[in-house]
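Onboarding guide, step 5: your first structure request.
Type a short instruction followed by the sequence, for example:

Predict the 3D structure of this protein.
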Amino acid sequence: PAFPVEAPQTGMADKLLFIGSNTAPNVEGLKDFLQNTWPHVLDRRPNATLDVAGTMNRAFPNPDHRGVRFLGIVDDLAPLYRDAGIVISPLTFGSGLKIKLVEAMAQGKAMVVSPITLQGVEDVCGPGVQLAETPKATANAICDLMDDETARIDLASRALTIARDHFSAQAVHADLRAWAQNLL
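The system replies with C-alpha coordinates like these:
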Protein backbone atom coordinates (compact mmCIF):
# COMPACT_ATOMS: atom_id res chain seq x y z
CA PRO A 1 0.00 0.00 0.00
CA ALA A 2 0.86 3.65 -0.36
CA PHE A 3 0.92 5.98 2.62
CA PRO A 4 -0.86 9.19 1.59
CA VAL A 5 0.23 12.52 3.06
CA GLU A 6 -2.25 14.76 4.85
CA ALA A 7 -2.58 17.44 2.17
CA PRO A 8 -1.49 18.15 -1.41
CA GLN A 9 2.06 19.44 -1.74
CA THR A 10 2.29 22.09 -4.44
CA GLY A 11 6.04 22.63 -4.10
CA MET A 12 8.08 25.12 -6.10
CA ALA A 13 6.71 25.85 -9.56
CA ASP A 14 9.98 25.49 -11.49
CA LYS A 15 11.20 22.34 -9.72
CA LEU A 16 10.61 18.96 -11.35
CA LEU A 17 11.29 15.53 -9.89
CA PHE A 18 11.92 12.11 -11.41
CA ILE A 19 12.56 9.08 -9.21
CA GLY A 20 13.70 5.75 -10.56
CA SER A 21 16.23 2.99 -10.66
CA ASN A 22 18.52 2.50 -13.62
CA THR A 23 16.27 -0.04 -15.33
CA ALA A 24 15.87 0.20 -19.09
CA PRO A 25 12.38 1.77 -19.05
CA ASN A 26 13.51 4.54 -16.69
CA VAL A 27 16.82 5.16 -18.46
CA GLU A 28 15.33 5.29 -21.95
CA GLY A 29 12.37 7.38 -20.79
CA LEU A 30 14.62 9.92 -19.13
CA LYS A 31 17.05 10.00 -22.08
CA ASP A 32 14.15 10.71 -24.39
CA PHE A 33 12.81 13.37 -22.03
CA LEU A 34 16.19 15.13 -21.73
CA GLN A 35 16.75 15.10 -25.48
CA ASN A 36 13.28 15.90 -26.78
CA THR A 37 11.28 17.58 -24.00
CA TRP A 38 13.65 19.31 -21.59
CA PRO A 39 14.88 21.87 -24.18
CA HIS A 40 11.27 22.97 -24.78
CA VAL A 41 10.71 23.34 -21.03
CA LEU A 42 13.85 25.45 -20.71
CA ASP A 43 12.75 27.64 -23.64
CA ARG A 44 9.62 28.63 -21.71
CA ARG A 45 11.03 28.37 -18.16
CA PRO A 46 14.81 29.02 -18.24
CA ASN A 47 15.07 28.65 -14.46
CA ALA A 48 13.45 25.22 -14.39
CA THR A 49 15.30 22.46 -12.58
CA LEU A 50 14.98 18.70 -12.57
CA ASP A 51 16.10 16.54 -9.67
CA VAL A 52 16.66 12.89 -10.52
CA ALA A 53 16.76 10.57 -7.52
CA GLY A 54 17.62 6.89 -7.45
CA THR A 55 20.23 4.83 -9.21
CA MET A 56 19.60 6.62 -12.52
CA ASN A 57 22.90 8.43 -11.97
CA ARG A 58 24.68 5.17 -12.88
CA ALA A 59 23.22 5.36 -16.39
CA PHE A 60 24.27 9.01 -16.77
CA PRO A 61 27.92 9.02 -15.65
CA ASN A 62 28.75 12.36 -17.30
CA PRO A 63 25.52 14.33 -17.22
CA ASP A 64 25.61 17.60 -19.09
CA HIS A 65 22.07 18.91 -18.99
CA ARG A 66 21.37 22.43 -17.83
CA GLY A 67 19.33 22.52 -14.63
CA VAL A 68 19.44 18.75 -14.05
CA ARG A 69 20.86 17.23 -10.86
CA PHE A 70 21.45 13.49 -10.51
CA LEU A 71 21.20 12.88 -6.77
CA GLY A 72 21.77 9.14 -6.62
CA ILE A 73 20.17 7.15 -3.83
CA VAL A 74 18.45 9.46 -1.36
CA ASP A 75 17.72 8.27 2.18
CA ASP A 76 14.57 10.35 2.58
CA LEU A 77 12.47 11.22 -0.46
CA ALA A 78 9.95 13.27 1.53
CA PRO A 79 11.82 16.60 1.14
CA LEU A 80 12.21 16.03 -2.61
CA TYR A 81 8.50 15.36 -2.98
CA ARG A 82 7.62 18.33 -0.79
CA ASP A 83 9.77 20.77 -2.79
CA ALA A 84 8.91 19.55 -6.30
CA GLY A 85 6.18 21.42 -8.10
CA ILE A 86 5.70 18.60 -10.61
CA VAL A 87 6.70 14.95 -10.72
CA ILE A 88 7.33 13.46 -14.15
CA SER A 89 7.13 9.91 -15.45
CA PRO A 90 8.09 10.01 -19.15
CA LEU A 91 8.30 6.25 -19.69
CA THR A 92 8.34 5.09 -23.31
CA PHE A 93 7.96 1.37 -22.52
CA GLY A 94 7.43 -0.86 -19.52
CA SER A 95 4.93 -3.16 -17.90
CA GLY A 96 2.99 -3.55 -14.69
CA LEU A 97 1.76 -0.99 -12.20
CA LYS A 98 4.24 1.87 -11.99
CA ILE A 99 5.13 2.31 -8.32
CA LYS A 100 6.47 5.79 -9.10
CA LEU A 101 2.92 6.76 -10.16
CA VAL A 102 1.24 5.50 -6.99
CA GLU A 103 3.96 6.89 -4.73
CA ALA A 104 3.83 10.39 -6.23
CA MET A 105 0.03 10.44 -6.13
CA ALA A 106 0.17 9.46 -2.45
CA GLN A 107 2.56 12.37 -1.91
CA GLY A 108 -0.12 14.70 -3.25
CA LYS A 109 1.85 15.79 -6.29
CA ALA A 110 0.86 17.18 -9.65
CA MET A 111 2.20 14.75 -12.24
CA VAL A 112 2.82 14.79 -15.98
CA VAL A 113 2.97 11.25 -17.30
CA SER A 114 3.23 9.29 -20.53
CA PRO A 115 0.60 6.80 -21.70
CA ILE A 116 2.96 3.94 -20.70
CA THR A 117 2.93 5.17 -17.09
CA LEU A 118 -0.87 4.83 -17.01
CA GLN A 119 -1.09 1.41 -18.68
CA GLY A 120 -3.66 -0.70 -16.88
CA VAL A 121 -4.78 2.01 -14.44
CA GLU A 122 -6.05 4.66 -16.85
CA ASP A 123 -9.58 4.62 -15.46
CA VAL A 124 -8.49 4.86 -11.83
CA CYS A 125 -5.45 7.14 -12.05
CA GLY A 126 -6.13 9.11 -15.23
CA PRO A 127 -8.21 11.82 -13.55
CA GLY A 128 -5.37 12.54 -11.11
CA VAL A 129 -2.56 13.16 -13.58
CA GLN A 130 -1.82 15.18 -16.70
CA LEU A 131 -1.34 12.80 -19.61
CA ALA A 132 0.95 13.90 -22.44
CA GLU A 133 1.70 11.79 -25.50
CA THR A 134 4.47 13.69 -27.31
CA PRO A 135 7.58 15.56 -26.21
CA LYS A 136 6.08 18.94 -27.14
CA ALA A 137 2.79 18.12 -25.38
CA THR A 138 4.76 17.01 -22.32
CA ALA A 139 6.74 20.26 -22.27
CA ASN A 140 3.55 22.30 -22.68
CA ALA A 141 1.77 20.37 -19.91
CA ILE A 142 4.72 20.88 -17.56
CA CYS A 143 5.05 24.59 -18.33
CA ASP A 144 1.32 25.18 -18.11
CA LEU A 145 1.32 23.64 -14.63
CA MET A 146 4.38 25.70 -13.68
CA ASP A 147 2.46 28.82 -14.74
CA ASP A 148 -0.74 27.93 -12.88
CA GLU A 149 -0.54 27.16 -9.17
CA THR A 150 -4.31 26.64 -8.96
CA ALA A 151 -4.10 23.93 -11.63
CA ARG A 152 -1.20 22.26 -9.76
CA ILE A 153 -3.19 22.29 -6.51
CA ASP A 154 -6.27 20.87 -8.23
CA LEU A 155 -4.30 18.08 -9.92
CA ALA A 156 -2.39 17.28 -6.72
CA SER A 157 -5.66 17.16 -4.76
CA ARG A 158 -7.22 14.75 -7.24
CA ALA A 159 -4.09 12.57 -7.17
CA LEU A 160 -4.12 12.43 -3.38
CA THR A 161 -7.81 11.50 -3.28
CA ILE A 162 -7.21 8.68 -5.77
CA ALA A 163 -4.26 7.42 -3.73
CA ARG A 164 -6.37 7.38 -0.56
CA ASP A 165 -9.36 5.72 -2.23
CA HIS A 166 -7.46 3.05 -4.16
CA PHE A 167 -3.90 2.58 -2.86
CA SER A 168 -3.89 3.34 0.89
CA ALA A 169 -3.50 0.50 3.38
CA GLN A 170 -7.18 0.80 4.23
CA ALA A 171 -8.21 0.44 0.58
CA VAL A 172 -5.68 -2.24 -0.33
CA HIS A 173 -6.46 -4.43 2.68
CA ALA A 174 -10.26 -3.92 2.74
CA ASP A 175 -11.10 -7.30 1.18
CA LEU A 176 -8.67 -9.14 3.44
CA ARG A 177 -10.13 -7.47 6.54
CA ALA A 178 -13.67 -8.29 5.41
CA TRP A 179 -12.70 -11.90 4.80
CA ALA A 180 -11.03 -12.14 8.23
CA GLN A 181 -14.09 -10.61 9.90
CA ASN A 182 -16.29 -13.26 8.31
CA LEU A 183 -14.13 -15.97 9.88
CA LEU A 184 -14.80 -14.70 13.39
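Each response can be followed by summary notes, for example: The chain has a mean pLDDT of 95.
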